[in-house]
């Protein structure tokens, strides 16, 4: 998986929970799109919950009306196809459909194990901190217990502090783009094994497209290529000292 100044082995990524955080304009959605693109190219299908239509251009089947049976969508994904669920109308019907879809996926994955990812854009709206819904319950279950069933999750949010802390703290891979709100910076301080002042300095220094990558004790600053880039030319940026 070539993300720009970072290369990951897809085998080290599957079945994990990934958090991609940062304010609007920091490059977080671009990072999520690149990550999804690399998974798809590696043969790992992705189900994208896409409230703002930001994932156009990927090799996906797009659904913008949810008359489809959840079984049909899950079967499509288990055949290796990725899907983009365009949920620009956030209403009770959409949340009910997503709940049915995720519950069906959970049940089927117990028997029909296949490596795949669920990408949740605007994760604070679907898995909020301090609030439980049928949808947040099943998404939390998948994030925390999906590994044995082949299920990974990608959480994308501009408001880190509003995402369910149980899920966020259990993520195994982080891409931390710039944030400015004190409560969101506090979340970063809880994630990164750095002194408080060092976290603040590193986050403030980030420009659009840059992020702090954290996985298995490895901590480094990276630059993620733009989605429409044809060639990867960026070199590694300075490593962050732990």
Describe the structure using short key phrases.
disordered C terminus, Rossmann fold, single chain, 9-stranded mixed sheet
Give a structural overview.
- With 242 residues, this protein is of the alpha/beta class.
- It has one domain (10-223): Rossmann fold, CATH 3.40.50.
- The protein contains eight helices and nine strands.
- Strands 3-4-2-5-6-1-7-8-9 form a nine-stranded mixed beta sheet, with helices on both faces.
- Helix 2 links the parallel strand 3 and strand 4 (83-86).
- Helix 2 (70-78) crosses helix 3 and helix 3 (92-109) runs parallel beside helix 5 (134-145).
- The longest helix has 18 residues, at 92-109.
- It is globular, with a radius of gyration of 17 Å.
- The two termini are 25 Å apart.
Quick overview of this protein structure:
This protein is α/β, with parallel strands linked by helices and 242 residues long. The protein is built from 8 helices and 9 strands. It has a single domain, classed as 3-Layer(aba) Sandwich (Rossmann fold).
- CATH overall fold name: Rossmann fold
Approximate shape? globular
Question: What is the β-strand count?
Answer: 9
Portion in beta strands: 15-25%
Describe the secondary-structure layout:
Layout: E1 17-21, H1 28-41, E2 46-50, E3 61-63, H2 70-78, E4 83-86, H3 92-109, E5 116-120, H4 123-126, H5 134-145, E6 151-157, H6 165-169, E7 173-176, H7 182-191, H8 196-205, E8 210-215, E9 218-223
Parallel strand pairs: 1-6, 1-7, 2-4, 2-5, 3-4, 5-6
Antiparallel strand pairs: 7-8, 8-9
